[in-house]
Amino acid sequence: MKFSQAKDLALISAIYFKGVIHVSLSSYFKNLFSDKKSLQKVDILLEQEGIRRDTNSDYICAMFDEDLNIIATGSCFGNTLRCLSVDHHYQGDGLLNEIVTHLIHIQFERGNTHLFLYTKPDTAKFFKDLGFYEIVRADQQIVFMENKKDGFSNYLKNLKKSDSKPQTTAALVINANPFTLGHQYLIEKASVENDLLHLFIVSEDSSLIPFSVRKQLVLEGTAHLSNVCYHETGPYIISKSTFPSYFQKDQDSIIESQARIDLAIFTQIAKYLGINKRYVGEEPTSLVTSIYNQIMLQELPKQAIDCIVIPRKTYKNGPISASTVRKALKEGNNQILKDLLPLTSLTYFLSPEAQPLIKKIRKTDNVSHY
């Protein structure tokens, strides 16, 4: 049954929310299928259209034909739209428009008004017609879009620029989960070797240590440096939860595409701020960092930006690592904390203020993440 032939029928959509499949008819909700059966149908459609389901989705909707075959689907995760697909037999009937409109409504109900999506270049025009605007594209394979016309341009305008004209301007992007002596060493080195350092702190709140704490510790741990300009990354730099793994065939491809999207955005930021160097920390045990660093070393010089990889600062037991700090916090190992944290970070984690966070860390099964 063509959707266009069923205008008199009520719209039925299957909803996957927090691990439960529902059917939605107006405001009425009930269980429809077992999770496995419904998600298998979604997977079949996505695979048929050359996409795989993103495991990060927290809301999945689908349209059915009269035989309860899924003919259109779309998902949300955070403030993004994902895994949008229509059975090729039904394309041109307006189903994708219905799916996107429904997901936007859901996002607005959640309080998410600034939305993002990734799509293929050949479908970018369709989303432009629905009110999304291109930010960047990577290798003519993926287009990153948002629903605010001036979203990224306003982010650039709000970045603090230097009143002077420094000869050397560098940049660093850190997550600092939490801020360690290794982060401090890297920032100090970049600061002393340049006239101005733009320090970007990953502000997406998906780390074990909340952004408010991470930012506080970065500011306190670098307060002795006079040439550092601080920025929040917002949704534009290293926003891992918004990356579309469903477009990629393997893990290396996912990381590489993420890096190329990030670099395309960073290049525009660098041009706006006059950045001519980017410092990165070496982390040989991390697949993500290794691939990122390789791509930066290849691509940044093409944009007249030097990429400088700094060897990790070590202590008696090996490289200083934020994951080692998180493990020490979980286990209550204060000696490790004293070895790996600057005094400002150590003081915080030993304070009463930090105890609720430490309790949360101790209840977390795995404090080491990919």
UniProtKB/TrEMBL annotation:
N-acetyltransferase domain boundaries: 15-150
UniProt EC number: 6.2.1.22
GO MF annotations, alphabetized: [citrate (pro-3S)-lyase] ligase activity; acyltransferase activity, transferring groups other than amino-acyl groups; ATP binding; lyase activity
Keywords noted in UniProt: ATP-binding, Ligase, Lyase, Nucleotide-binding
Reactions this protein catalyses: holo-[citrate lyase ACP] + acetate + ATP = acetyl-[citrate lyase ACP] + AMP + diphosphate
Keyword NAD: no
Entry-linked Gene3D superfamilies: 3.40.630.30, HUPs
SMART domains attached to this UniProt entry: Citrate_ly_lig (SM00764)
UniProt cross-references to PANTHER family, sorted A to Z: [CITRATE [PRO-3S]-LYASE] LIGASE
Function: Acetylation of prosthetic group (2-(5''-phosphoribosyl)-3'-dephosphocoenzyme-A) of the gamma subunit of citrate lyase.
Entry protein name: [Citrate [pro-3S]-lyase] ligase
Organism of derivation: Streptococcus troglodytae
Gene label: citC
